[in-house]
Amino acid sequence: MTTASPAIQRFELDYAAARKSARRLNTISTVLFALCFVVTAWTGGFFDMTDVTLANGDRVSMWKIWAGLPRLGEYLYKTLPVLHWETLWGDVGNWFWRWKVWLQLLIETVLIAYMATLLGVVGAFLLSFPASRNLAPNRIILNITRRYLEIVRTVPDLVWALIFVFCFGVGPLAGVLAIGLHATGALGKLYSEANENADMRAVEGIKASGGSWFDQVRYGIVPQVIPNIISYTLLRFEINVRSSSIIGFVGAGGLGQEIRVAMSLQEYTDLSALFLIIFTTVIVIDMLSEKIRHRIIGLTGKGV
């Protein structure tokens, strides 16, 4: 029987120590994760109790989440329309009985998302360069730009919509400004991170040849990050379509106002029809965005 060399023995000891350290780290991480989950669930009301009357008349206490799940199913069941094969077209017509109004509001919703995305892209693109650590002219401008982007994306777009409805009145203008402002903050962070991951050798070359800060950005950074910018922009447009269909709750235009009316009047089948319209629109936008994104970044081998 041969004896392992000192080097191999040392390697085995180090490997055993590394395994032991990794197991200790995994155990601590798992315990912390479980603790955070329990605390979050407790503060979120997952363990709250409520009294429920059973079918036989008995009153029992159970967790609120278990007591409420059947009501969720009941609510969703109410949104399902009654469709018969023999009268399918007529039933579908009754289901989408306000299709002309909904179509107009759907167009308005998409236009709100389009205009808001356009405003957000312009604002985020211009602010992303001074918000990038590798491109900011100085630390003061870097901090000011970053704090501004954090503020505008921290406030939910629904809150911005309430503020702009107060300022400019009910209508699509408030929705465009609210979503556009929030998109500026969200896209500005993504764009600035793309700038920071860019290869700086091209920038250094332009700088060494006497190029200005704008020349460095224009010819050194923008060509590298433009595929990421387009990809993030298309994703944000899809998100903005969903947002613009919600902010109508507070009078900022779009399909949201119809959702609010349907919920207020308990027109459950209208809710499912509106959901189906929004869902179909998001699917179409997602498919078109994917084709455009792949076309631009060249995944199909036909990049522009």
TrEMBL record:
InterPro entries: MetI-like, MetI-like_sf, PhnE/PtxC. It is found in: Cell membrane. The chain crosses the membrane at residues 28-47, 101-129, 158-181, 271-289. The keyword rRNA processing does not apply. Residues 106-289 form the ABC transmembrane type-1 domain. Signal peptide: none annotated. It comes from the Bacteria. Keywords: Cell membrane, Membrane, Transmembrane, Transmembrane helix, Transport. It holds the Pfam family BPD_transp_1. The keyword GTP-binding does not apply. It is a multi-pass membrane protein. Belongs to the binding-protein-dependent transport system permease family. NCBIfam families: PhnE (TIGR01097). This is Phosphonate ABC transporter, permease protein PhnE. It comes from Roseibium porphyridii.
